[in-house]
Amino acid sequence: MSNIGSYEEQLKNFNWRSVEQELDHQTGKVLNIGYYCSDRICQNGKADKLALIWEDFSGEFKKYTFNEMRILTNTIANYLKNLGIKPGDRICLFMDKIPELYFGFLGILKMGGIAQPLFSAFGGESLFTRLEDAGTAAIITQKKHLGKVRQILENLPHLKHILVVDDDGSKPLRDKELAFFMEKETPIEKFEIYPSTAETPSVLHYTSGTTGKPKGAQHVHYSLIAQYISAKYVLDLQENDIYWCTADPGWVTGTSYGIIGPWANGITQCVLDSGFTAERWYKFIQDRKITVWYSAPTAIRALMKEGEAPIKKYNLSSLRHLCSVGEPLNAEAVLWSKNVYGLTFHDSFWQTETGSIMISNYPGMKIKPGSMGKPFPGITATVVDLKTHEPLKKTGVVGLIAIKPGWPSMFRTYWNNERTYKSKFINGWYICGDRASLDEEGYFWFVGRDDDVINTGGHLVGPFEVESALLEHEAVAESAVVGKPDPINMEVVKAFIALKPNFEPTDMTKLEIMNFIRKRLSPLAMPQEIEFVDSLPKTRSGKIMRRLLRAKEWGEEIGDTSTLEND
Ligand code: ATP
Ligand code: MG
Q: What is the pLDDT of residue 7?
């Protein structure tokens, strides 16, 4: 039996108040995510349950119970407080996926700080812009990333403390730098958790930078309500689950559903701190007996590229529920997962700004491959007209995804950018910036990001439709479709394609792909040109950056590349 039971019933009965009650939260009273993810779970009799199983590339692993996590997060909170860091100060987490990253996040929240998680793979420049923008007071990092911090320190007058979690004494630390060993400090059994309330700022998350310069989305402790219940209903996390979220906490998925959602539910989660290979991932699922797996289309496509051979080498029978987020999940991927794992990836749609899942496919609900599913209970989502921003009356018409403001995990502003924040709310709706249509049964069908839609001779083509058709061809591993300038039609469709191993980038392959998609697409959506590439430009959260390809076609400046994955 799934947690959500019947989606239709939930829709009728759901209200946020009852979630607050489930979490024993009373309006106006103290609400601290750090407490909810550790202390409260211990108080509920699960002190000795495993909270985290962490493993690195070599297979070395560490385990922590909820009580150990409670004490370690206290220890970090206490240390930060004693340094003189104040509630409301921004504290950056700049680490690989090591336990200190996860516990540091909760420790910061426990002392009232604002956690600012950033990808440890960021270079000095990307780090600098975000620390400068946020006026960050402290950074917690590893020795191997210290060089990047040192490089930019001079121009960051607000940055007072640099905590190094694995200093080995090989090189002397400098001014402002402190060796902090989470597990060697005096353990703090009791810490007076900062009495934050619903609207106290909690996390400052920068968006992925897929469509432009990343924006700092400011969240508050009340987000817990939505993150807790959506982890329960969408990820279907249950008492004995072993859960794996593949996202790095530098991306919102890695905090909302890689820290807060699962731990507020008292669930054991696993972290793999290692690069991607299909075999490494399957071995991890096998060894850790993962039951619920939350990943992203880019990863799923990478697994598809490797094919079935590695799957056969491992025992993946522990898996019972799969979910995906971050990009459109093409129908082919959904069908493939059913075929090879015997389980269907459940697509979910949301954003850094929304803080939690907005639209999704729920356990037990009929899945229409290629559709994002339906609004989360308690969320009012619709598709509004491109110009008037009125909800569309007809189904099958493309408009903008819009959400009624007021859900618990809604961002409260863009850091230093209230104007852009305000501009996202039109006609009483929060406008996501994505295009979709609704079908007769209320399912959402993604079309493309508003910025990525191609206007060819007055007809609008969504890249997702074309990319989905391309991905059905056996040779295509990945594709990105953009508009290219055209003297007659303004724009025409151009496809960039990365091939699977064993396929040659020849004219013959191009022709075959063209013939294949001709039957699947309208003449207008047909690419006029195909270009083979080794790989597509992506953000660190694995999103295809079509704007870079488009800029190249138009001979324009490529803009912000601070999130571009370049290894
Ligand atoms: P930026 O706002 O800086 O351009 P970004 O929008 O990629 O970056 P995120 O907040 O990480 O930053 O991503 C949210 C976006 O990801 C959504 O607006 C949507 O375009 C896309 N997305 C997420 N989940 C899905 C999904 N299931 N199907 C289609 N698109 C999705
Ligand atoms: Mg965005």
A: 97
The number of residues making up the chain comes to: 567
Q: Which CATH architecture has domain 7-435?
A: 3-Layer(aba) Sandwich (3.40)
**Ligand 2 center to residue 430 CA distance, Å?**
12
Beta strands in 35-121 (DSSP E): 50-56, 61-65, 90-94, 114-117
**Ligand 1 site, CB within 6 A:** 207-212, 214, 251-252, 325-329, 347-349, 351-352, 372, 432-434, 446, 449, 541, 543
Residue 440 DSSP SS3: coil
Tell me the per-residue pLDDT of 346-382, one tens digit each, with 9 for 90 and over: 999 999 999 999 999 999 999 999 999 999 999 999 9
- Conformational region of residue 106, where left means phi above 0, alpha means psi within -120 to 50, and beta covers everything else: alpha
Q: Where does CATH 3.40.50.12780 sit in the chain?
A: 7-435
Closest atom of ligand 1 to CA, residue 215: 3
Q: CATH 3.30.300.30 in the chain, residues?
A: 454-554
The model carries a pTM of 0.96
Pairwise pLDDT comparison (542 vs 51), residue with the higher score: 51
Nearest to 263 by CA among 289, 219, 228: 228
CA of 415 to the centre of ligand 1 (A): 19
List the structure tokens of 136: 């960050």
Closest C-alpha residue for ligand 1 atom 30: 327
The pLDDT-based confidence of 266 (bands split at 50, 70, 90) is very high
* pLDDT value, residue 524: 87
* Closest Cα to atom 5 of ligand 1: 208
In the CATH scheme, what is the code of domain 454-554?
3.30.300.30
Residue 307: partners with Cβ closer than 8 Å, 6 or more residues away: none
Ligand 1, residue 539: give the atom nearest the CA. 7
Q: What is the pLDDT of residues 319-342, one digit of tens each?
A: 999 999 999 999 999 999 999 999
Tens of pLDDT, residue by residue over 157-186, are: 999 999 999 999 888 999 999 999 999 999
Q: How many CB atoms lie within 10 A of CB 529?
A: 12
Share of the chain above pLDDT 90, in %: 95
Q: How far is the CA of 544 from the centre of ligand 1 (A)?
A: 10
Give the helix, strand, coil percentages of the chain, each rounded to 5. Answer: 30, 25, 45
